[in-house]
Design a protein that fits this description.
This is CP family cyanate transporter-like MFS transporter. This protein has 425 residues and is mainly α. Helices cover 73% and strands 3% of the residues. The chain has a two-stranded antiparallel ribbon with strand order 1-2. The longest helix has 30 residues.
Length: 425
């Protein structure tokens, strides 16, 4: 679980998805330097592969619609599907890890992610959606399990490793946003190749991860604790809604910002580069925001300010002169990256013990991502109904207001009233 180090108000630990496992993980034993370096590199590379699915399709959405004859509704569903999968499949991660082991689960995730990504490049609408759903399910499981592995294997370097894998997540999204269209041009206009090429990094890291998995021993585990009262707790729902509504804004950016900028008159490569820069700014903001958030009496003000910044910047990207678009992209990255980080931090700060934190994290991810899927879906429907993205501004304002209200209440210096109960063996 993630908690705050008592001697460092800026230190944010990690939520452990297996906090309820019995027996507890074995005590940390330092690995040889070379093995530890390889493990760290592998985890960072796995993280890199958990975002290209979102932004690669976004970068090529006009081409996908033209080539495959996808309707506006179909394009909306394509951008929404992986986010829905994040919510539907994240609860499976701890169960899979307890049954076959965390390392083996991640190995399966990486190879299935490569398969799902490759299926998107077979010039078939059904396979495009099937591959997207498979990739989204894999990303959901990887999202949940990676922080626990970092906490377990790098307890003395948790902050450093958290920074690296957060940067890798953003780098994966930024790379796909900025490079997918140039890759399509380099491949002679091959839409299939530009979509499928993102399976290669996943395949490479899968083969890098394989020998390390084979060297580990699976430890059987059972659930030894349950958490009572979480789903009836008002504060838990405010945390969950804050997570979900800010995530809806984030996935509107991942799914639609490149098409929005292209419709405004920018060429595809420039639009992809702008989104790429914005996502990398998110990474920097992710590293700074939690340290600011934990230094105040509570997080109400920073939650609301970041919501306002993210929404105002999105409106600037929609309507401000194109000469200022880079400024708005940077501001949006600051606001959105900060929101993601403080939403995760609030989960930690509103809980008293690791078991409640792990369950609140699961609740926030499951419900929050299902709620977040509404954002990109409605953007696509608005574009189909009105022929323009302009009315998406109303949606962005409503999502921002909802996130700000719930962020205000979730930011109060209180604890959820759920409690941990030990179950019999």
């Amino acid at each position: 679980m993630t908690h705050l180090a008592e001697n460092d108000p800026g230190a944010i630990d990690l939520i452990d998805a297996e906090a309820d496992s019995v027996p507890a993980p074995a005590p940390y034993r330092p690995k040889a330097a070379a093995a530890r370096f390889l493990l760290g590199v592998s985890l960072v590379l796995i993280a890199f592969n958990l975002r290209p699915v979102f932004s690669s399709a976004s970068a090529l959405l006009p081409e996908i619609r033209d080539t495959l004859g996808l309707s506006a509704t179909g394009a909306s569903l394509l951008t929404t599907l992986p986010v829905v999968c994040l919510g539907l499949f994240s609860p499976l991660a701890p169960r899979l890890a307890q049954r076959i082991g965390t390392e083996r689960t991640l190995l399966l995730v990486v190879f299935l992610l490569a398969l799902g990504t490759a299926l998107r490049g077979l010039s078939s609408v059904p396979l495009l959606f099937l591959g997207t759903a498979l990739a989204g399910a894999c990303i959901a499981v990887g999202n949940v399990l990676l922080p626990g592995l970092v906490k377990r294997d790098f307890p003395d370097k948790a902050a450093l490793m958290t920074g690296w894998y957060t940067m890798a997540l953003c780098a994966g999204a930024a790379s796909a946003a900025g490079l997918t269209l140039p890759i399509e041009h380099m491949l002679g206009g091959s839409l299939d190749g530009a979509l499928a090429v993102w399976a290669l990094p996943a395949l490479v890291v899968g083969f890098l991860w394989l020998p390390q998995v084979l060297a580990t021993r699976k430890q059987a585990a059972r659930t030894g604790f349950r958490v009572e009262g979480l789903w009836r707790d008002r504060l838990a729902w405010q945390v969950t809604l804050f997570m979900g509504l800010q995530s809806a804004l984030a996935y509107c950016v991942f799914g639609w910002l490149v098409p929005i900028l292209r419709e405004r008159g920018l060429d595809g490569v420039t639009a992809g580069a702008i989104v790429s820069v914005s996502v990398m700014v998110q990474a920097a903001s992710c590293l700074v925001a939690p340290h600011i958030a934990v230094r105040g009496r509570d997080q109400r003000l920073i939650n609301v300010v970041l919501c306002g910044l993210a929404v105002v910047a999105l409106l600037g990207l929609l309507f401000a002169p194109l000469s200022t678009v880079w400024i708005w992209a940077v501001l949006q990255g600051i606001g959105q990256g900060g929101l993601i980080a403080v939403a995760l931090t609030v989960i930690v700060l509103r809980t008293r013990d690791p078991h409640v934190a792990a369950h609140l994290s699961g609740m926030a991810q499951c419900v929050g991502y299902l709620l977040a899927a509404i954002g990109p879906l409605i953007v696509g429907l608005i574009r189909g109904w009105t022929g323009s993205f302009a009315w998406s501004a109303v949606l962005f304002v409503l999502l921002g207001l909802g996130a700000a209200v719930n962020g205000w209440f979730a930011g109060r210096a209180l604890y959820v009233k759920a409690r941990t109960v030990e179950t019999s063996a």
